[in-house]
Amino acid sequence: RIGVSVERRHDVMVDDPPEKRRRGHDGVAAAETLGRPLPALPDELWCKILTDVHQNDVFAFASSCRQLRRAQVSCGRTLKTKMKQYLHSQERVGRFSVLWFEWHSRCTRVKTKEDMKARTMLINASAFLGHLEVLRHWRGRSVARMGVWDTWTCANAAKGGKLEVLKWLRREVKCPWDSSTCEEAAGAGHLDLLKWAKAEGCEWATTRLCHKAARWGRLDVLKWARREGCPWTSRKVCSYAAEGGHLETLEWLGGTLE
């Protein structure tokens, strides 16, 4: 936004009509009276600012205007968004709107290994957020036949608690799944989704499921899993609960193990 504002201010000249000048800030009006455009920040200063910009925000920074693009190039910052970092948090990945995913999907041409990685990240993040229209877009493209759907697609839908997306993946594209689907659902506390996946024959009874539930304090999931006969390693499950700081879970485990 700052970059766009700077670029727009370059177009404000002294011979603009008075009513236009009055709508601006006092600083803009003062600059107009000098008969010249407002000065822009030098590229060197933008490069200094760019050092504090997170890697996943560099693309947005460089897309703001030509000057910020120049700054990005001269500083050597790459235009790479590490989507995997955002899949650990609904709040973080939620910064990307469905329109962003749709636009990025249309722009992505799957020709190289890097393109394929970008496609996989787009699909997995869309499954996590429940952006079914983006998944339909990829299903409709010819490149979707090139192994686009894998077990992590279902696992990310489960982690996001998107049951309808998971059902669509299984029904429409025959997306494969494995124990990671149930494990991610357990870690995120999506018990209803976990029960559905188990009923549909998804592999679920792993020690990792209980360990993830303990790590994130999903006591209701942990109790259900034990009633259903899911295995665990007593020492590890207690360690994970303690690591996550979940006292109630740890107390329940203590009583159960006794």
From TrEMBL:
Q: Pfam families in the record, alphabetically?
A: F-box
Give start and end of each F-box domain. 40-72
Q: Which Gene3D superfamilies match?
A: Ankyrin repeat-containing domain (1.25.40.20)
Q: Looking at the record's lineage, which domain of life comes first? A: Eukaryota
Task: List, alphabetically, the PANTHER family matched.
Answer: ANKYRIN REPEAT-CONTAINING PROTEIN
Q: What is this protein called?
A: F-box domain-containing protein
